[in-house]
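note to self — DONT lose this again. spent like an hour looking for the file last time. sequence + predicted structure for the chain T wanted, 1272 res
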Amino acid sequence: MQNDDEFSEARVKRASTQCSHLRGWLVAQIEYSKVITMVGPLKREVRRLTQAANIIQVKLKEQKKMIYNIERAIEQYAKEYEELMTQSGKFKHEIEMVGTKVERSVNLLKSLSEEQGRWTKESVSLTQQLNTLPGDVLLSGAFLTYIGFFDQNYRENLLKQWKNYMKDVSINPKANLSLIEFLSHPEERLNWESNKLPIDELCTENAIILKRFNRYPLVIDPSGQATQFIMNYYRDKNIVKTSFVDGNLMKKLESALRFGTSILIEDAENVDLILNSVLNKETRRTGGRKLIRLGDQEIDLSPSFQMFMTTRDPTFNFTPDLCSRVTFCNFTITLTSLQSQCLNHTLKMERPDIDEARSNILKLQGEFKVKLRNLEKQLLKTLNEAEESILNDDKVLNTLVELKKDAEKIHEQASQADKTWATIEKTSNLYQPFSLATSRLYFVLEKMSNIHYLYQFSLGFFLEVFHKVANKDNTLLQDEEDPMKRLEILSHNLYSTLFQRVSRGLLHEDHLTFALRLAQIRLQQINHDLDEDQLAFLLKGETIISGSRNLRNSIPKSLLTDSQVRQLEQLSDLKSFHDLPTHITKNLMKWKKFVSSNEPENNVPPTWEKLYKDKTEMMFAKLLLIKTLKPDRILSSGSQFIEEVLGKGFLTLPELDLKYIFESESNCKEPLLFCAQPGYDPSTKVDELQKQLGIELRTIAIGSQKSYENALDAVTFASKSGTWVLIKNVHLSPQWLSELERLIHSLPSPSPSFRLFLTTEFHPKLPPTLLRISQIFVFEAPPGIKANLLHTYLSLSHHHDISVKPLERARLYFLLSWFHSIVQERIRYRPLGWSKGYEFNESDQRTSLDTIDYWINKIGAQKKNIDPNQIPWEAIRKLLGDTMYGGRVDNDFDQKLLEGMLQELFVPECYDMDFKLVDYQQGENSFELLMPEGNKYGHFLKWIENLPTSENPTWLGLPKNAELLLLANQGKSALQKLMKIQNVYEDLDEMNENSLQTQEKDRRPTWMKNLEKNTKQWIPLLPKKLPSLEGSKESIEDPMWRCFNIEINKGQKLLQIVSHDLKQLSLLCKGKIKHSGYLKNLLKNLDQGLVPDNWKQYPIDDKVGVDRWMLDFGRRIEQLITICKSKDLGRAKGIWLGGLFDPTAFLTATRQAAAHAKEWSLETLQLQVSIDSKEKVTPQSFYITELVLEGATWEKNALNVTDKISTPLPKVLFKWVKNTEIVQKNIITLPVYLNSTRLELLFAIDLPIPNNLSENILYQLGTAIIIWKKEL
């Protein structure tokens, strides 16, 4: 019905509303019936379920009750469990705490045990330190107070002496005390190194002194390293640098005193006395202020004020007053410190990996030591500050752990460092010989000033050369990878570069000396040292003490002279030359060829050369042989030896290239000093360079006060603008040069293109400080007549026009050029050419040309030709001889020589076609040189250029053998100079009798053994006693007796001094006495073969060695002994005039005796000489022996020309006669000199000459009498 559409609610409601309601009721009933039908069973089920639920509810209540009881039980159990767990947690925590404490205790005990072991050792060490503390402190105090002034070698010796003195008074310092470790901390030293302090022992010691000074330091700093360090180290304190010559010094010092900044004052040699109050720290307090007086005002003194004074001159002697007010600190570099610097630089370039590893190890070792020391301090501080148990203090335990880790790390690092260091040392040792040789090279430069005052070289110059060679950009190293080959290239490049750079500033005669020293160092570098005995024989002067063998009878006199045999005897005493005499006697023809050869170094008998397997040893042995038998070839043989050691062409110098030097080898802070001999003007070199580069140049000639100011202003301006300054003739004011040097040093930031050029002649007062900062170039007159004449004649065009009429002018110009060249060239042969090195120069030539122009213009102005006879020859000769050239001559016999040359050249005959410039007639050696034809500049120039290159001393009027004498003297001089630059012992190790007696073997230095050997030879040469001269009243009135009495007194005093010194030296060599300063000076002189200054109490040739001097002195004493025994005081037997201490006093005494005996006036007496006379002596006469005639020979009772340099004269009778008794006919007046140096003219004598011999020839030959000859 519900689903019937017809009965839907809507249709019913449309049909009838009431029916719709009825329909609703019906529908509801039907639904209700359905529900009733459905609910009935459900109700029954509800009732059933309700009954079941009631049953279950009862059971539920029972279960809840049971659950409640269980929960109560659980709660009780939970509470009990919680209590148990709490107790368990407490137990676990306590267990953990106990475990931790146990672990900490174990670790603490372990750590403290380890620290205990280390600290126990330190405690033992501390006990030892406490025992030695007084000695350590005393030694350290003395070190800080006194030792700073000395160099490293002297410091070591001084410390040894102090320790010995302290040991004598039972004050013992620590046995292996390191003052560096004792007085400084590692962190301090690391800080110093970071501030550019060189890493070596000397500089570290000096840094300690600068850190711990009480009196303000005065630093000796030649290299500038100390100044750089101080400026870096005190940079944070606003340190100010000034100078004692700075006008603002007082303002800067006042500011530093007031505000507590540091100040560094340079040029301490100019210290101002106004600083005395500051140096003495003379302060006073006013209220709360601390005041110090500076000049006329009082200034507040800040406690942080520090002052440093420096000087760059290590030779300056400060006053004792200043020395007592300052603390000296000497930064003068030493061999060891420079070797370390060179090694470091070489490793950086060649093995940067090794250098880096080495630096890292040193750095890490220092850092870990610093960290360990800081941790120790922190641990002690933490333990001290711990308030509870240290087991509960994590800070203490962490510090201990960290300390342990660092200690282990340090140990591990040290172990690893030892392995790495072994590798580093092995690699470094490969470069050690090179770095040692490099250091030795610098100290050779330091010693070069012993040869000549001009040879001053700075450390900066040497390092600049070294760095240029040891540089990655060195093209010689680019294609080579092998380390040893690279090192060999470096060595050769360093030697050649240094020789080339240094030789620019050396005289040509010193090139060989310097090269020989370089060769010696090179051989030391490659472990090929020269035999010490052979080297000593080469360096020592000619000895006159015969060797242990007598060879005169076995070697013919036609082969070797007595002097050569004596030298051969000495040479044969050397082990390697022991068989040489035998070889000579068995091969006489071969050795005769050697002796007579012009090049004996190339003609040594081959059978002798084959005895040497090593070529270097053979070449050195050849040099010794040449020195012994052919000294005139020493230079040539020495050159061969040098090229064998240092390479072919080593001595060949490249042409001077000033442009390259300007661009690559000079800088704005380094003056270029051109030093020239008189007659050479090097300023033209600068002018040419300026024109080539186009840089502005200002030239100033020194001479007036205004020029000094202009020069300083010009240098200041040019240093800012980058231009050049040329200051000429600075030798005219050497004192002002110190001011110039200070200005150069104080220039703040000069322009890189700025250059300062200086020209000077040789002058001994040139400031060493200026020479050391300058590049020096030496210019000498060209050697040889041709070169000299060419230079002289070419210079004419700069000042005079040779083409000016009359035509005769050109010939006189050439004649003057020839004369000027001869005059200058003879200087090379002094004392034979001239007695002195007169400074004839171009100004003499120019003024002479002006004189010639004056007279020629006066008699032939506007004329094409003039008659030579009209030329006033006498006036020209007089002006040239007395004024232009003669004005420089101060020896009468040199004046005669000059006038004689003028008389031969400036004569009318010089215009003849066959006029002889040179006319040497001596048997087969005759030679003529005619005056050139022509009257134009080109004619004479071509003639000069065509002159032969092989010249002869006869061109100068000298003996033919003069060249051999010159070469021999030059060779001997080179060896003497080589001795002066040897690095002989610098200190004397103290040796006592006990130490020597306990030695199984003689371990003394070679020089000491040689000296002992020499003293044994010298002592027998001296008489034990010189008796006094017996006198009476009559004898006292005799001038001769008084003269010899004075001689004997001098001899007695000097004999006592020499004998005592030799005995002391003998005892010292045996170790029986200690050395003193006096003995040390004696040792240094005697080891070099020089005569000590204390023994030079009479004039003698400076070139005489100590062997020759010893025999000479012994002979002088023997002569005085003979005179004492003689009734006539030796007049009849003959007196060795050169053997008297004062020969002029003896001549005066004889003159007085003759005047007294004859009752003549002294003014009327004149010496008359008779050679080889047989007359008996009279009161007015006496015999003189051992006179030597130089430049001539005595034949047929007259002087004659000879090629021999010297000839001994027989006994000569000297007789005082009246002037009226002497008949003047065909005689020449000859000078009598003390010795061959001709520095001391004693008197003159007249000797006959043949009628056909001109006295001018003899004067040109250098004829003179010598009373003392070096060669016996």
